[in-house]
Specification:
The complex is a heterodimer. Chain A contains 16 helices and 17 strands. Chain A is α/β, with parallel strands linked by helices. In chain A, strands 2-3-1-4-5-6-9-10-11 form a nine-stranded mixed β-sheet, with helices on both faces. A six-stranded mixed β-sheet of chain A has the order 12-13-17-14-15-16, with helices on both faces. In chain A, strands 7-8 form a two-stranded antiparallel ribbon. In chain A, helix 2 runs antiparallel to helix 3, helix 4 packs across helix 6 and helix 9 packs parallel to helix 10. Chain B is of the alpha/beta class. Chain B has one domain: 3-Layer(aba) Sandwich (Rossmann fold). Chain B has five helices and twelve strands. In chain B, the strands form two sheets. Chain B has a six-stranded mixed β-sheet with strand order 2-1-3-4-12-11. In chain B, strands 5, 6, 7, 8, 9 and 10 form a six-stranded mixed β-sheet that branches. The chains are: A alpha/beta, B alpha/beta. Chains A and B meet through helix 14 of A and helix 1, helix 2, strand 7 and helix 5 of B.
Chain lengths: 468, 254
């Protein structure tokens, strides 16, 4: 009887598809055929223009509901990891190509087909609107770092909007939050169905807070926190010396972390249901955080521990975030950089894996990169300098980037400027011995440019053919 | 070889727009001329000894951090006034610039006191002024130079009548988006909204500040000439930044 009622309720909740939805779907196919790109946001943009409420109705049609992931860093990877865990048990609607504004989520909903669960990464700025429209059954908040201040505004402002958005979340909606981030802990602690996750292994902590650490003052009284362990940026085990705020007890934790150079990382996942050893085919502490967030979210959506361990074990990097591409007898290692906290982790991972002698760094300043390039001065590139023989600076702001390394102490003869991405890549490969690996650190649009370049040389598939 | 003593105010709190880039540029450009830059952090509760610094640096912070330091700064105000009267040079950027004025008036009474080192005050505006910016300065009579940077501020800064701006806006918003003025200059003290950071792509200003600091160090009214550097990369970075300001510098939509 209950099942019948549920079914009837669901049918009533499924309104007929409006004409504009069908029209928007047609546009996606057309866009791809015209070679205008992946068509990943165009239909959604159209829909968002025609009828924003259609997003609410499309989401309401998903029987298991939707889950959203937001963070400054790692949201694409975290969401892709959660998808890998959940895919065997669900048919997913997932914005895998990283189109994470309202229009991108609308596009993923349009092409959802017979999906039962929506799994979306969501831009930090778009989270409040999308939470309201999607009415998610689970939300995962990964971290808040300073990022593109010209676009998002100050960190406090984003945190405040998130607090308001989570305040309107129904009590039964699960809120998986990174308790190592003081701002997010303050958001999650107040929620009835909050799940705190965090890292608990002082052996992998940094000796001190990084230069660009953001939320280092107590959210209640403004006193600097005491950190017994700082892991990534301001993420860590903190306590206000006046006793006004401290990291909450962890419901889900990563312990016994082992970092294995540029190749792998592993940790023990501890949950109230038990523990599992997690083996990741990705390097770096930041990927441990991503995996921990994905595991907590998947668990909140009903995944078993064995499914979580298996899914994370199967996972290979999300598009463009960390990628090895064979070029003749050499490899290119692509690591996306976009803000100080993320770039610091890329640097740390490179240093752990054996720092490169030649490196290409490509800095663009389009809207998606952030027009304000000052963030490169907050990145701790310095640990790379002792081994770096040649830096090839590239992108629209190549000269600025070259200055960053020059004033960081790199010899003037070690700095080359090749604004054009293709020239920079060729020069980098020329400097790389046969059998060697060229490290390339691009910002977002430079990464897209490199992907196009590599695709045109027949070395990699264009991004819209690779996701999913 | 002369040590130039820099007092860096609140580096833990005011550092949002890569302020350490400015310090790195001052340090290296001093070192390339054979001078050592000694940078001392002046944080919460630290006392300022008048005359012991040749250059002060104040960076920008988020609203919350600026409020946290404003009260402490007021306790340093007397010493800072005395030091500046004694010829110490100063560069204040963004939030630091606002703090050196008489204060900041917020929308909802969240006022922030300043120390009145610069003849100006700042009032909250509704829309942030964000974008690339290019200004023209004439710090030394007859020597017109441009500064290129990035601005991101909600405050509208109004100079007192007759006060000297740092420069005139060629592209972007500047102090208030209306007056055509950017920044403020009183003798060796400079305040500006330009970050980016400011000095790597505007090497001439870094050298001007170093020369003023050296003048203080040597007890001279006359700033010494610094040995010129090639500055080829600096020039290219300046050109790109200036071009950005011309093509997409901030302006309010009509």
């Amino acid at each position: 009887m209950q099942a019948c009622l549920d079914y009837a309720r669901r049918m009533r909740a499924r309104p007929p598809l409006a004409l504009e939805i069908a029209a928007a779907r047609g546009v996606a196919a057309l866009s791809r055929r015209l070679g205008a790109g992946g068509g990943t946001t165009i239909p959604g943009k159209l829909l968002a223009e025609l009828d924003r409420g259609a997003i609410d109705r499309l989401a309401a049609r998903l029987p298991t509901g939707t889950a959203v992931v937001s963070a400054t860093n790692g949201k694409t990877t975290t969401t892709a990891m959660a998808a890998e865990i959940l895919r065997p048990g669900h048919r997913l609607a997932h914005n895998a190509a990283g189109a994470n504004l309202v229009s991108g989520v609308a596009s993923a909903l349009l092409s959802a087909g017979d999906a039962d669960l929506g799994l979306f990464e969501v831009d930090e700025g778009a989270l409040p609107e999308l939470v309201q429209r999607l009415r998610p059954v689970a939300v995962c908040l990964g971290n808040l770092f300073r990022d593109q201040l010209d676009r998002y505004g100050e960190l406090e402002l984003v945190a405040e909007r998130w607090r308001d958005a989570m305040g309107s979340l129904p009590a039964e909606a699960r809120l998986a939050y990174n308790a190592d981030d003081p701002q997010l802990a303050a958001v999650g602690e107040g929620h009835a169905s909050g799940i705190a996750f965090g890292l608990d292994d002082p052996r992998v902590a940094r000796p001190s807070l990084q230069h660009a650490a953001d939320s280092k003052y107590c959210v209640r009284c403004g006193t600097p926190y005491d950190y017994s362990a700082a892991y990534v940026g301001h993420l860590g085990d903190y306590r206000c010396p006046r006793g006004d705020h401290a990291r909450p007890a962890l419901d889900v934790a990563a312990r016994e972390v082992s970092l294995q150079g540029l190749e792998r990382a592993a940790f023990r996942l501890d949950t109230p249901e038990g523990s599992r050893r997690i083996e990741l085919g990705l390097p770096g502490l930041y990927n441990v955080y991503n995996a921990l967030a994905a595991a907590t979210l998947a668990r909140a959506l009903g995944a078993e521990l064995d499914e979580i361990a298996a899914g994370l074990g199967r996972f290979s990097a999300a598009f463009g975030r960390f990628e090895r591409i064979a070029v003749g007898g050499k490899h290119i290692l692509l690591l996306l950089i976009k803000n100080p906290a993320g770039a610091n982790e890329a640097v740390r991972t490179l240093v752990d894996g054996g720092p490169p002698r030649a490196m290409v760094v490509a800095l663009n300043d389009e809207i998606a990169d952030g027009r304000d390039v000052s963030w490169i001065w907050d990145v701790d590139f310095e640990p790379l300098l002792p081994n770096l023989e040649t830096l090839v600076a590239s992108g629209g702001r190549a000269a600025e980037l070259a200055l960053r390394f020059r004033y960081g102490g790199l010899d003037e003869h070690a700095v080359e400027v090749e604004a054009d991405l293709g020239d920079a890549l060729d020069r980098g490969l020329e400097l790389t011995p046969n059998g060697g690996e060229l490290v390339v650190l691009p910002t977002y649009t430079a990464m897209l440019g490199l992907q196009r370049l590599l695709a045109s040389r027949g070395l990699a598939k264009p991004y819209w053919e690779r996701s999913g | 070889m002369t040590a130039i003593r820099v007092g860096h105010l609140y580096p833990d709190y005011l550092n949002i727009y890569a302020d350490r880039g400015n310090i790195a540029v001052l340090t290296q450009r001093a070192a390339w001329r054979g001078h050592e830059l000694e940078v001392t952090a002046l944080g919460m509760g630290d006392a300022i000894a008048v005359g012991e610094h040749d250059l002060y640096y104040v960076g920008g912070g988020q609203d919350r951090e600026q409020l946290l330091v404003a009260e402490d700064l007021s306790r340093k105000a007397e010493a800072l006034h005395a030091a500046v009267e004694g010829g110490t040079a100063t560069l204040a950027v963004c939030g630091g610039y606002q703090l050196l004025g008489r204060g900041y008036r917020g929308f909802h009474g969240e006022d922030m006191p300043g120390i009145g080192l610069l003849p100006l005050e700042t009032v909250a505006g509704e829309r942030r002024m964000i974008g690339d910016v290019l200004i023209e300065c004439e710090l030394e009579p007859g020597e017109k130079r441009t500064l290129a940077g990035f601005e991101n501020h909600a405050g509208r800064t109004h100079l007192d009548p007759g006060a000297e701006p740092l420069g005139r806006v060629l592209a972007g918003f500047g102090n208030d988006g209306e007056s055509g003025f950017e920044g403020c200059r009183v003798g060796r003290v400079i305040g500006t909204y330009l970050h980016g950071p400011l000095l790597p792509r505007n090497a001439w200003l870094a050298d001007w500040l170093l020369a003023q600091a050296l003048a203080h160090r040597l007890g001279s009214d006359e700033a010494p000439e610094l040995e010129p550097l090639s500055d080829e990369l600096e020039g290219r970075a300046h050109e790109v930044s200036a071009a950005r300001a011309r093509s997409r510098g901030g302006r309010f939509d009509a």
